[in-house]
Amino acid sequence: MRKKSKKGQEGFSLIEILIVVAVIGVLAAMIVPSAFSAVDKGKVATLLSDYRAVKSAVLNYYTDVGSWPAESADGTGLVGKPATSPATWSGPYLERWPTSPWENVSFEIKKITTGTAPNTETKYILEIDKVPAEVVNKIYDELGSATVTKSVSDEVGMQLLLAKVNV
Fold first, then answer.
1. In the Cβ-directed half-sphere of 41, how many Cα atoms lie within 13 Å?
2. How many domains is the chain partitioned into structurally?
3. Of 107, 114, 130, 156, which is the most exposed, with the fewest CB atoms less than 10 Å away?
């Protein structure tokens, strides 16, 4: 029960203020991790969206031109007209080349050929380097082993399959 306060001494006690601060601290401790988790999910969704856009652009390029785009770290042939473009090029196939939601991460289209003639296999991949390991695992879980090749070296990265050609 509160005592009658003297005139001019109304307000909260120190204990009441400490309780409110403690409750706010507990609530913040519960909310902040989920907020960071939402940001990470957004970054993964952006990466997946960019991969799908590049894959679609590569396939559209092939449909128009009849050959695959050259290896590129800047989307040459997909974002802008290549210096030696065939008459059937009707791009641009991408509005912009992907930029990473993480620092110092690069995207590069590469061609990997394995086997010897007449049994060769060529893969066109989107190589993404310096991606946080937990992100690589999330992308792997989302797309599966047929699409994602994890590369674990000094810098974690991955290769995402764009197209596979068997000759």
1. 6
2. 1
3. 114
Question: Band of the pLDDT at 21, cuts 50, 70, 90?
Answer: very high
| Residue-range definition of the domain harbouring residue 42 | 16-166
The answer as to whether 5 is a domain residue is no
Closest by CA position to 78, among listed 36, 108, 115, 114: 108
Interhelix angle 133-143/14-65, nearest 10 degrees:
60
Per the domain annotation, does 3 fall within a domain?
A: no
